[in-house]
Design brief:
The chain has 5 helices and 16 strands. By secondary structure, the protein is mostly beta strands. A 9-stranded mixed β-sheet has the order 3-4-2-1-7-8-9-6-5. Strands 10-16-13-14-15-12-11 form a 7-stranded antiparallel β-sheet.
């Protein structure tokens, strides 16, 4: 019988799901079937994994889907104690036992994780929800609205590699990180920037920098995976004003603010503007 025939049959179908989780270049492939399944030359290992039903609607918050898997799975380790910096994307295929046809059932990404006893519950959002989300409107403001180091037409376009510094970590206590290289820049220069390092599996982890004084920076939240003695890359922050954009980054041609906006509004009710 074909896949469609098995889907509409009363009792002939034996459905199973194949899950692929992806972070950067690393993939995890599992199935809720009792035996390993092969798809596109890749093997999906049996595991105690399940997914809630697909829901239809127009509100993104109501389109989420919950995937449950053991707390001992390699994916669960990514969420202890903090979630990974990179998004985790998901593809779910469906097939019937004995039927090779395996269509894609669902595509999305992980937006939340919660440990419940011996299980990890992942809250996932379909890719269509991101497509429906309204874009951010650009405000008329003095400061530059561009995200620092963003690339593309009408964006910041500063080359991060030109300004980043390499640092060997001396101490890592809570959110406080020290390195001699941080002291080579003026106090506050790294505030608003980021710290990035490579994990043993080759993926990268990042933290925002909230404060910088001397050889110490304060991160947005702790970085337990950053080892003392290890290397990291620190990228300076930006004040998002004309002076910083021109004098430090030499990027005035891409400045997105309007520094000469009048202090008074012509619509404040005063007839004399």
């Amino acid at each position: 019988m074909s896949f469609d025939a098995l889907e509409v049959s009363g009792a002939s179908g034996k459905p199973m799901l194949l899950f692929q989780f992806t972070r950067d270049f690393i993939h995890w492939r599992w199935t809720n079937a009792q035996q390993p399944q092969v798809l596109l030359g890749q093997t999906f290992a049996p595991i105690n994994i399940s997914a809630s039903k697909i829901r239809q609607g127009t509100e993104p918050a109501k389109l989420t889907r919950t995937i449950t898997l053991p707390h001992t799975s390699p994916l669960a380790a990514l969420y202890r104690p903090f979630p990974p910096s990179d998004p985790i994307s998901i593809i779910i295929w469906q097939r019937h036992d004995g039927e090779p046809e395996t269509p894609v059932e669902w595509v999305g990404r992980v937006v939340g994780a919660e440990f419940e006893g011996a299980q990890l519950r992942l809250t996932c959002q379909p890719s269509s929800a991101s497509a429906r989300r309204a874009g951010r409107s650009r405000a008329w403001q003095r400061g530059c609205p561009h995200a620092l180091y963003s690339l593309g037409d009408g964006l910041c376009n500063v080359n991060r590699a030109t300004f980043e510094i390499s640092a060997q970590i001396l101490t890592n206590i809570g959110s406080k990180i020290t390195a001699n290289a941080f002291a080579t820049l003026p106090d506050g220069r790294l505030a608003g920037g980021l710290l990035e390092w490579v994990l043993p599996d080759g993926t990268r982890e990042r933290r925002g920098i909230d404060a910088h004084v001397g050889n110490e920076v304060t991160l947005s939240f702790p970085a337990p995976s950053l080892p003392v003695g290890g290397n990291a890359i620190a990228a300076p922050g930006c004040a998002h004003d004309v002076t910083d954009c021109d004098h430090f980054f030499s990027n005035i041609n891409n400045f997105g603010g309007n520094p000469y906006t009048p202090d008074r509004s012509p619509f404040d009710g005063d007839p004399v503007f």
